[in-house]
Amino acid sequence: MPEVTYREAVRDALSRALREDDGVFLMGEDIAEMGGSMAVTQGLLEEFGAKRIRNTPISEMAIVGTAIGAAMQGMRPIVEIMYEDFLTLSMEQLVNQAAKHRTMSGGQLKVPLTIRTQGGAGWSPGAQHAQQLEAWFVHVPGLKVVFASTPEDVRGLLWTAIHDDNPVVFFEHRTLYPVKGEVPDELEPIPLGKARIHREGTDVTVIATGRLVHEALQAAEEAEKDGISVEVVDPRTLLPLDEEAIVASVRKTTRCVTAHEAVTRAGFGAELAAIVQHGAFDWLDAPIERVGARFAPLPFAPVMEQWVVPHAADVLDAVRRTVARA
Amino acid sequence: MATVEERAESGGSGVSDEMLRGFFREMLLIRRFEEKVEERFRAGELPGFLHVAIGQEATATGVCAALAREDVIASTHRAHGHAIAKGVSVDRIMAELYGKKEGCSGGFGGSMHLYDVEVGLLGANAVVAGGIPGIVGSALAFQFKGEQRVAVAFFGDGATNAGTFHESLNLAQLWKVPAVFVLENNGWAESTPAVQHSPLPVDELGKRALAYGMKLIEVDGQDVELVYLAALASREHALSGKGPVLLHLRTHRLTGHYVGDPQVYRDKEELKRERETKDPIELLRSRLELSDEEFAAIDSEVTAEVEAAVEFAKAGTDPDPEDALKWVYA
Predict the structure, then answer these.
(1) What is the pLDDT along chain A (326 residues), one digit of tens a residue?
(2) Which of A73, A111, A141 is the closest to B328 by Cβ?
(3) Is B327 in Cβ contact with A59 (below 8 Å)?
(4) Among this protein's residues, is A60 annotated catalytic?
(5) What is the domain extent for residue A321?
């Protein structure tokens, strides 16, 4: 199996979708000649031309809204929102229009739209270029939400998102773009709503998303040295959510830690904790621990930034706390 | 020979009396529909709340008459007239207002979310300016596919202050998509008069098109013939590849923002004067020199149509509560 970066894996899914279906096109800021601010769309303009790889003005509301209109006419637009912080500018169109047209029309319309975006800390961009806002979108009926953590997953999930008939908000993590991983020769679509168990264990389940999947795997290695067996589960799609796999894992291990880079308060971990306590109440041997960012806008200075967002050590501490209870 | 556009701008001509009579009938149908839903709302039969477009019938009828069935429109919170004019059945609109399965949105939408994709109604929108970018995207899709169709957004003067409006017009002109942006300028953003919401004089709001290098066509929105000709010209321009058009129609809302609005913000004398001089139905009635008998005949026909719609709606089926989950995902 070839090894590719997360960035190349995203590009591969985009290229294949563009090649296969004339109704697929890309729109976003700086995605054409420049190849995107994260260099994900490099080379696509040359292969597919300016009609399908469309640079846009800095108008997030119109970008998303226009894509919605094209999707309603049966095309499959893929929007790149440069930073997920800028998704806030398109919230009206995304939340009031994209998510609701199908229901409001009594099933007459569908909006097969994919919105790719990225974020994440670790490079001192300050407060407006690195937020993790995925939980906002999980709260909106009608949207689907994906957050992939490996090259194989990002490729297979993006393919599925593009071909899904609903609006999908697709989160990528900035620090994962150079991460390499093996991918199958042929692209294998990954269904939305299926978790991946990255590592099996018997003492604690860590349910992690995005960058924290990698931090959790590192924490699991460390824990193993102390004789603690950690299972690492990545839901991969937050909406729909593979509740069954998550609950089954916790019933097996009897302890649970949730981990994401977004702030802990009202983060996706809170939803996971609610699902786990309901589905595995009689199995739990310790309170569910939540790992996430401290409740502050992301500060600039590296020492503060690193202190605010969680790392493997924070996951490890949480794992130890759950084990210490029993 | 004068172009359609020049004819529209010079006062209009060439629309047959027969066609104008058709417009008259439709405008009166819209009026009677609006009056009926006001009455049924006040009687407590209709859930939610309503915005009627009494006084703005000529913009709906004139614009939609210039469109092909396969052209699409996005409407606003004041949507009944647009829906009727685009060809949605009066029965199904009424059933929607009653929250019935037989409604044009299956009871999921209500007055502010009327849809009928079959005839090109892509939804009325309860967010001011919210429907505009979707129209840019629909037009982009038509351009992509090489289809001779236009996409049309209706909105009011209040919407021209929303960022959505400006972002959408900018992008639409940049990409020269076949769209027509219909500004129904009634001079009111809900209760706020244009003088309090826009730095430009109310009659000059169309100038906003010029900032984007967009074609501007403007006519009196109370004159259905002019509206029709201007809409034809707009459609032609949009399809020519030269880019979209801002069609500025100065109109008058001869009623409140919502049904039951006491309009404390409005000068009563001025409203009375507007009702006497700006009613598009009365203006067309004089123009056509309809006799009382002719008027009564048309009136009883459309009134019966509206009454039948109420009967249809009342006989409709209530959705099951759990139907609420039916269309969340495709």
Answers:
(1) 899 999 999 999 999 999 999 999 999 999 999 999 999 999 999 999 999 999 999 999 999 999 999 999 999 999 999 999 999 999 999 999 999 999 999 999 999 999 999 999 999 999 999 999 999 999 999 999 999 999 999 999 999 999 999 999 999 999 999 999 999 999 999 999 999 999 999 999 999 999 999 999 999 999 999 999 999 999 999 999 999 999 999 999 999 999 999 999 999 999 999 999 999 999 999 999 999 999 999 999 999 999 999 999 999 999 999 999 86
(2) A141
(3) no
(4) yes
(5) 196-325
The runs of H, that is alpha helices, within B186-223 are 194-197
* CA-to-CA dists, residue B154 to A236, B63, B133, B158, angstroms: 41, 10, 11, 12
Q: Is the ipTM of this complex over 0.90?
A: yes
Which token pair is B195? Answer: 């003088």
- Which of B171, B327, B328 is nearest residue A66 as measured by Cβ atoms? B171
What is the total count of domains within chain B? Answer: 1
Selected catalytic residue, list A129, A173, A214, A311: A129
Partner-chain contact A57 B171, CB within 8 Å: yes
Range of the domain at B44: 32-309
C-alpha span between B135 and B246 (Å, rounded): 13
Same domain flag for A220 and A298: yes
Tokens 């990545």 locate to: A234
Q: Assign residue A42 the CATH number of its domain.
A: 3.40.50.970
pTM, entire model? 0.96
Written as six digits, the tokens of A2 are 């070839």
Domain holding A278: CATH number?
A: 3.40.50.920
Is A226 domain-assigned? yes
How many folded domains does chain A comprise? 2
User: Chain A partners of B163 at a C-beta cutoff of 8 Å?
Assistant: 61
Q: Give the pairing of strands B151-156 and B179-185.
A: parallel
Is A84 one of the catalytic residues? no
Closest CA to B281 of B6, B21, B16: B21
Structure tokens at A77: 């637009």
